[in-house]
């Protein structure tokens, strides 16, 4: 029997409806319009399309959103100045600096300059530290999206063997921490694999829930998974172009190879990606409410 498809598109749509209702309520009852500024440096086509999608989603939900695009040669100090300006601008409750930044800019210097209250990516060390401690904070969007996917498909993590492939600051490390925590959505036994892991399949085959965020197209095959496992594919790899010039996407999981062995699986596209953008919207609303003392 083929795996059950976990539709990020459908679950994201449900959550977006909830957010849209909340945004209307904030406007009507508190004259509060959540605001998001996205900052894009350079002209990488993938980054352009992600930032465009973020702004479009914000507008549909009634969130005020502005995109600021700067040339690739922008200096670190110019970008820092813009971040400081956005920190002071009360119209914006959330600030997102699209990554990766050009190589002459130190990403940490920029991310650490964003006010933690406006850090809707959850990348600032204050939020990273709070996450690790289990304190309330702005959670990084992709890990938060994965928690929502599991929760809304009634997949329990408590006592489960969760194996994560990838140790990035954006996905691997935070999702590992969240899954470890002593609360609903956590309580898992967590293993983190990476490029130096000696026998990847040994670990991944033990997973009840396998989360793959390695950035390597189609690396996970049937031999890597246990029969009936839940497979969450975070990879978004551009592996080619259609005749019409549209990017062809592949996950980190070889979907065709795995689909008859997994119990359930997220597709790419249409799995984790739409959830990531939706959690950015959720974080922007949370930051706005916190800014005016509603949380
Ligand atoms: N400061 C910052 N924050 C981020 O959250 C951030 C970032 N930088 N840099 C790049 C990564 C990547 N990322 C994605 C978001 C949505 C999809 C997404 O919606 N994907 C669609 C397909 C989109 C397409 O067609 O390209 C899907 O999987 O269905 C993918 C990737 C956010 N990132
Ligand atoms: Mg694939």
TrEMBL record:
GO MF term set: methenyltetrahydrofolate cyclohydrolase activity; methylenetetrahydrofolate dehydrogenase (NADP+) activity
Reactions that this protein is recorded to catalyse: (6R)-5,10-methenyltetrahydrofolate + H2O = (6R)-10-formyltetrahydrofolate + H(+); (6R)-5,10-methylene-5,6,7,8-tetrahydrofolate + NADP(+) = (6R)-5,10-methenyltetrahydrofolate + NADPH
Role this protein plays: Catalyzes the oxidation of 5,10-methylenetetrahydrofolate to 5,10-methenyltetrahydrofolate and then the hydrolysis of 5,10-methenyltetrahydrofolate to 10-formyltetrahydrofolate.
Q: Which family does it belong to?
A: Belongs to the tetrahydrofolate dehydrogenase/cyclohydrolase family.
| PANTHER family xrefs | C-1-TETRAHYDROFOLATE SYNTHASE, CYTOPLASMIC, C-1-TETRAHYDROFOLATE SYNTHASE, CYTOPLASMIC-RELATED
Q: What does the annotation say about its assembly with partners? A: Homodimer.
**Protein name, entry field:** Bifunctional protein FolD
- Organism per entry: Desulfobulbus oligotrophicus
Q: Gene encoding it?
A: folD
């Amino acid at each position: 029997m083929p795996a059950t498809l976990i539709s990020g598109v459908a679950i994201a749509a449900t959550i977006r409806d909830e957010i849209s209702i909340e945004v209307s309520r904030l406007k009507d009852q508190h004259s509060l319009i959540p605001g998001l500024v996205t900052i894009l440096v350079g002209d990488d086509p993938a980054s352009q399309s992600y930032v465009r999608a973020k702004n479009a989603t914000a507008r549909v939900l009634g969130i005020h959103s502005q995109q600021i695009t700067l040339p690739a040669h922008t200096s670190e100090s110019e970008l820092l100045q813009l971040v400081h300006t956005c920190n002071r601008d009360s119209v914006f409750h959330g600030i997102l600096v699209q990554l990766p930044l050009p190589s002459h800019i130190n990403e940490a210097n920029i991310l650490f300059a964003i006010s933690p209250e406006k850090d809707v990516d959850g990348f600032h060390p204050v939020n990273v530290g709070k996450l690790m401690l289990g304190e309330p904070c702005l959670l990084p969007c992709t890990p938060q999206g994965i928690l929502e996917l599991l929760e809304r498909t009634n997949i329990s993590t408590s006592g489960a063997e969760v194996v994560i492939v990838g140790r990035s600051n954006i996905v691997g490390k935070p999702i590992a921490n969240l899954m470890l925590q002593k609360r609903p959505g956590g309580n898992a036994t967590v293993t983190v694999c990476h490029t130096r892991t000696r026998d990847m399949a040994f670990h991944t085959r033990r997973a009840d829930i396998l989360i793959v965020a390695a950035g390597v197209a189609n690396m996970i095959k049937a031999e890597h998974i246990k029969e009936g496992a839940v497979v969450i594919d975070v990879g978004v790899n551009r592996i080619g172009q259609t005749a019409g010039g549209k990017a062809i996407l592949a996950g980190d999981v070889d979907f065709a190879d795995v689909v008859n062995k997994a119990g359930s699986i997220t597709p790419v596209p249409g799995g984790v990606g739409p959830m990531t953008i939706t959690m950015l919207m959720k974080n922007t609303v949370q930051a706005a409410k916190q800014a005016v003392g509603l949380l």
